[in-house]
């Protein structure tokens, strides 16, 4: 961060979602910990539409700041 502090996160889960599925679980849950969820594309590339048909979410939680 702006003070030079480094945050370390541990991966606690990984889920793949169909592109049309609800991903509300990414934003809901236990708020007692600091979390960082990463979302990107995966699955089959649909060339004619220039997109993938799935999303992958990596769920993490903060383990320490240094």
Characterize the structure shown.
This protein is elongated. Strand 2 and strand 3 form a beta hairpin. It has no helices and 3 strands. A 3-stranded antiparallel beta sheet has the order 1-3-2, with no helix packed on it. The model has no long low-confidence stretch (mean pLDDT 88). It has strands at 7-18, 35-46, 51-65. It is an all-beta fold.
Output the keywords.
3-stranded antiparallel beta sheet, 66 residues, 3 strands, mainly beta, single chain
Strand content: over 45%
Total number of helical segments? 0
Q: How many strand units? A: 3
Q: Ends: how far apart?
A: 11 Å
Flag low-confidence runs: none
In angstroms, what is the radius of gyration?
Answer: 15 Å
Q: What general outline do the C-alpha atoms trace?
A: elongated
Strand arrangement in the largest pleated sheet: 1-3-2
Could you say which structural class the secondary elements and strand pairing correspond to? mainly beta
Which whole number gives the mean pLDDT? Answer: 88
Which secondary structure elements does this structure contain, and how are they paired or packed?
Blueprint: E1 7-18, E2 35-46, E3 51-65
Antiparallel strand pairs: 1-3, 2-3
Short recap of the structure:
The chain is mainly beta and 66 residues long. A 3-stranded antiparallel beta sheet has the order 1-3-2, with no helix packed on it. β2 (35-46) and β3 form a beta hairpin.
